[in-house]
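Appendix B.2, paired examples.
Example (i):
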Amino acid sequence: MKLASLAAVITLGLSTSACVIIDADDVQHEPITPPASSQSLEPLMAARVDGADLVVRVTSNGCTRQEDFSVETQRRDGLTSFSFVRKRPDNCRALIAEGVELRYPLDAFGVERGGKIRLRNPLVRP
């Protein structure tokens, strides 16, 4: 159940001046098994725009890679919504408490400099 339709708004004054909106619930997350449903969104530990990249932090047992995620986007009224879904489990045994950062170039998703971004994934606090 959604506790809030919008949990955090992150506005960054970096070189892209992009706005990141995280659409999230305040939920607990146990690492690192992919959700039972392939449509379940991966909880994010953090998200930010760094230069021309969207950087998300996810939980990891030591083997999490960018290729383990599918990224779905929807564009509407100048806003690009991102959804991250874990495709493969991280079966390694080294729990990385701070998680790992994954970098996605915004221009690969058609987001222009200064564009608005919305993340549909839940945000968890470590």
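Example (ii):
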Amino acid sequence: MFKRDPEKTAQRQARRDEKRRERGEWVAKQRVEKEALSAWRAVHPAEKTLNAACMLRSWPSSKFGETSLGPVLGGHAEFVDAGAHKAWTATRLVVGVATGGASLVAGRKNKGAGVINVAFGNGAAQTYNVAPENSTLRMANQYVTAFNALAAQLANECSQPS
């Protein structure tokens, strides 16, 4: 009933084949990059720790020792714990006494703050506020330790003659 144009069918098939070939090349390239990154991180375990610490946080992650703000090499990070702790506030204590202790279940309020100061190898500097929660403070400390360890390892590798 309907006759297909063999020329158009051949062109369409050629386009499909070209897309398949390009997709295959892209997948192969991604696989090679992933294997290279995996091998690099096996030699630099501090980067894996640094990236684990910055998951769901606004701290910059690293790939091959480079962050979105600059290189880790030549950088330094410090964690300033400015009295971050949990404390009872006067309001919570008064309400707790007035309600016969029922509202004391609400708990203590986070007080103070923590700060991460990061200086990157290109001279860029960034400050990040850290919520005064135990898990966040622990992750901030882990991030700073891993950042400094990775920076030291990269500096040591650069100073060694090949």
